[in-house]
Amino acid sequence: MPMMERLVAAGGHLPAALAGLAAAAVLAFALPSAAAQLLVVDFTVRETIPLTEGRIVRGHLEDCDAARVRTIHAGSSASGGVTTFNGSKRIDCGSGNTLTLAFSVRTADCQKTDAGTWKVTRGTGLFASARGQGKLVGTYTLGTKPSPSCERDGIDDRYTGKLQY
Predict the structure, then answer these.
(1) pLDDT single digits (tens) 101-129
(2) Does one domain contain both 42 and 94?
(3) Is 113 exposed, middle or buried (0-12, 13-18, 19+ CB in 10 A)?
(4) Phi, psi of 63, rounded to the nearest 5 degrees
(5) What's the rounded mean pLDDT across residues 58-71?
(6) What is the pLDDT of residue 73?
(7) What is the mean predicted confidence (pLDDT) over 85-99?
(8) What is the distance between the terminal CA atoms of the chain, rounded to a whole angstrom?
């Protein structure tokens, strides 16, 4: 017996059954066709000091071939020879696709590196549902080379971790 005839024979609840089927169809089309992938992040951003705008110089960010990276907030605090830098950076991939990352790193006076963590706080476009976090290691530079002393004019920040969107 066809499904419609069974529904009518079972008590004539055809409108309710059709409404249920329609709701299921709407949900099926509203849900993403594939689950978000968990991607490995490993890229390096080069910025000059004072931090303004940087670019990816090693590795890449999936779906973001020509990224511009801008520090949108930065602050620091120091105690006992250790400085903590906190802030956020926006990665602009063009066409309304952006990622905003919060970061927190620590370094000691005149160290060649800083180290800490990053976390996605916001995304737009392709990255609207983005989540992710990882490690951040910065190498202070003088020109385009690692800085051998306290003198520095830039930083190469290496982001590693996981990103899902």
Answers:
(1) 999 999 999 999 999 999 999 999 999 99
(2) yes
(3) middle
(4) 65, 25
(5) 92
(6) 94
(7) 97
(8) 45
Residues 67 and 146 in one domain: yes
Pair (94, 144) in one structural domain: yes
CATH number at residue 160: 2.40.350
| pLDDT of 35 | 64
For position 97, what pLDDT does the model report?
Answer: 97
Same domain, 68 and 133: yes
Contact 100, 72 (CB under 8 A): yes
Range of the domain at 2: 1-31
Amino acid at 41: V
Q: What is the length of the chain? A: 165
59 and 140 both lie in a single domain: yes
Q: Provide the residue type at 134 as one letter.
A: G
The torsion defined by the Cα of 146, 152, 156 and 159, in degrees rounded to 10, comes to 110
Whether 116 and 133 have beta carbons less than 8 Å apart is answered as no
Looking at the 3D structure of the chain, how many domains does it have?
A: 2
